[in-house]
């Protein structure tokens, strides 16, 4: 267990330090960072397997320990490590010809630091240190957004760091309030900020104070998770960041913030009627899906389109978390599916941007003839994101709506269905405009650097497997996660 | 009310911290904001040390020392350097004008007292009078961030928000565990440095630090 955790966390840290130390940048640093990401991914899978086999998720690491990996942590760690590996392997700084060395160096430093902070956030047990790690994700990822400095990227990075730092500071205020309640009730106990301890003692705490604390926490981490109406930074940051970073931010960083919310929800639900946290999550979730869906209708840029689609999907996850065990299962499965589909789509969008040199949907035409493989895979990515079978997101969205109906919330199911149809119609329209039509003059035809396409085809395979069979280990990991946060 | 020195000193210090935030709403020149932030951080360090002295918690001396070095000296020095470059830009026309801002701030302070009322009953700490003031400072700092247009003012608003949370932790719980405290300091420092880099980026790209110019990305 400890060994796997070590190999999960240390390789990205080593890769980041190496990229700092080696000046000027050499391609070797890039390849070492890919190898490190691969080791980290292997370790995350080993952790997941250990958690599934051990069967008792709560006792893997001692209660008082700094680190704690239960099923939910392992699930998130696998997603993070997978997307990091993809981003690392397809990121700048591996080819002889390519980006400027200074940019590659900056990318490798902060991408690995970013991955490290996310992995720490999901494996650390102290909720205040979890906050420290999540705040650090903002700092490390913000540094990569203006990799090529334009007016737009400067603006995006400023909005991102300011709105997210302020938001996340509120989450810390909520954490301090909960700790204040704990200290006022039980006195200063070592390990009082450990999630398990907090949860065990939550019954003794004051419901009213915990409600205030949760409101702060939900707004704080909700800002980071891109829940509306605090999502305003998201489309800018995700569309202006270099594509591998967009893939990480959209694919897993949002999920890490929702992970923090799920952890706190479990604590607060032990003290307050779950109706309270559920209604809040449902409200923010529905608003996010609504805003995401209607922003997609009017979207003119394909990277922003993917970003708003993330707002929509995070809204769905928030709704799922509010719908009891079945809904939580659907939400966590949706996190996995979304991580795979969105990271793939953003990386492909990066290839399209590189070729067409524009982010406007209207100016990308004839994609299927210009880049047959990239175009087809991008189409598959979008079809997966709108929730068509046989891809994984169909299953998780189906389970989500089923959970809403079984929970007796028919209107939630109805509203979500209508919004999903809106998303479907607008994304397919945008996709059609990109795939077909006249090829613009002056755009080179044919695929270059084709091995990334092979890597991304694996993502498609994964999405189909998730959609058709839902492999046993993953469903076990998710059901154990659900049992971990819901009693 | 018991005339306990700790209680009185905390009240005095917290009120002073709130006052420095109000100064930011009231004045228009960036140099005044830097001075206000410096004073606020010194007060925060003093409150932390006072709580440590009366609460017999020597750990808090370390926290106070780091607070003083980081937020009382280092960050204000960096802010002063920035201010020498961009200080000529004034908050001439904030989104919310001065009078309205101060009126809203007054309402926020009242609101903070309403929210913090139930907290007072669950604790017997002599420092509990500082809780509503810390919350009020938090709200006023948020107001500064959302109602002002210069990137530097927004940074100072964010720094004051961090001070508000540190005050909340000091008066509510006599400080969070030391490991957490230092993690938070590290984040605060790194976060500030990145924000500082970005303010320079904005100035180089837009020739101003007015965030109203940042309007390229819409919808």
Describe what you observe in this structure.
The complex is a heterodimer of chains A (487) and B (219). Chain A has 487 residues and is mainly alpha-helical. Chain A folds into three domains: 125 residues; 145 residues, no CATH class; 215 residues, no CATH class. Chain A has 19 helices and no strands. In chain A, helix 3 packs parallel to helix 13 and helix 8 packs antiparallel against helix 10. The longest helix of chain A has 36 residues. Chain B is mostly helical and 219 residues long. In chain B, helix 1 runs antiparallel to helix 6. Chain B is 78% helix and 0% strand. Chain B contains seven helices and no strands. Chain B has one domain. At the A-B interface, helix 5, helix 6, helix 8 and helix 9 of A face helix 4, helix 5, helix 6 and helix 7 of B.
Kindly list the characteristics that best describe this protein.
heterodimer, A: 487 residues, mainly alpha, 3 domains, 19 helices, 76% helix, 0% strand, B: 219 residues
Quick recap:
The complex is a heterodimer of chains A (487) and B (219). Chain A has 487 residues and is an all-alpha fold.
The run of helices and strands of chain B is HHHHHHH
Give the number of domains of chain B. Answer: 1
Residue share in β-strands of chain A: under 5%
Distance between the termini of chain B: 55 Å
* Radius of gyration of chain A, whole Å: 21 Å
Helix segment count of chain A? 19
Shape of chain B: globular
What is the number of domains of chain A? Answer: 3
